[in-house]
Amino acid sequence: MKRQVIQNVLNLPGISGMALIDGRNRPFFVGPDISLNSHQQEALAQGIQQVVETTPAHFDTFTFRFTNQLTHIYKLEQGLILLVLTNDQMPLTDYRTAIGQLKATLMEAPHNAVSTFRLLAGCVTLGSNATDLSTVTASQPEPEAVKQGTLTPVLQDVVAALNHLSDGATQYLGKIIVINTWKQSRPAHPWLEQFEVQKDGQFATGTDGQTPLTAEQCQWIKAWVTAFLGRGSRTIRNFQTLVSEQTLTPQEQDLLLDAPPSQDS
């Protein structure tokens, strides 16, 4: 594996960072524009593993938006997953060439790819310090930007957050109860009917995942989540705290939960 190939990707304008995951070794994340906390790191890594496990075999590349960045996932051989974070201004021609070269060099020795990647990536020149992480996530948006609604969530963001919440709830209630609770607590809004709760407790929709959500649609989602957590609290004390605050990332909480009342009100 050549260090210059990794350097070429990180030098591209619009690249925030990248990681290599094999499900066995501790993943290593490197990049010039990373701002992370441990809760976010764990959340995105778990989400990526779940997405990859449920993706059809012929899907080897897919992209989703996480906070204010695009997350590109590449399924490689030997169970390797390459994750790349970019912004919307990424020059696609240069990006595809550099990523193609990186994937090819990773496959030269797939069994040792993570350890070799860690060694070489730790030596590349970055705009800021590289960070050794067990898991990965995108940079946080400014809190005020979220409060003011300047970052418009898309449908895929909501589905990913709901799936993460559903997984957390399953640990306490079990899969069957979680599925039934979601169905019983769904508000009577036609728009919400597109969210299908599958047999594994995960959500799916038949629409474009990049469709932006309106403020009203976001509120319908929050009303559903509030009702779901309320029903769960009838069974388990502190269910809302256990599931939402300990499972969801700050960004997912913004998507799914109503803001707590102000101390001044």
Provide structural commentary.
By secondary structure, the chain is an alpha+beta fold. It folds into 2 domains: 138 residues, Beta-Lactamase (2-Layer Sandwich); 110 residues, no CATH class. Helices cover 46% and strands 12% of the residues. A 5-stranded antiparallel β-sheet has the order 2-1-5-4-3. A two-stranded antiparallel ribbon has the order 6-7. β6 and β7 form a beta hairpin.
Name a few traits of the molecule.
265 residues, 2 domains, five-stranded antiparallel β-sheet, alpha+beta, Beta-Lactamase
Strand content: 5-15%
What topology, given as strand order, has the largest sheet?
Answer: 2-1-5-4-3
Record field, number of beta strands: 7
Distance between the termini: 59 Å
Shape: elongated
Give the CATH level 1 class of the largest domain: Alpha Beta
User: What is the helix fraction of residues, given as a range?
Assistant: 40-55%
- Work out the helix count: 10
Give the SSE order as H and E letters.
HEEHEEEHHHHHEEHHH
Low-confidence stretches: 127-151, 261-265
Radius of gyration: 19 Å
CATH topology-level fold name of the largest domain: Beta-Lactamase
What is the mean pLDDT? Answer: 75
**Superfamily at the CATH H level of the largest domain?**
Dynein light chain 2a, cytoplasmic
Estimate nothing, just give the exact number of structural domains: 2
Main beta sheet: strand number and arrangement?
Answer: 5 strands, antiparallel
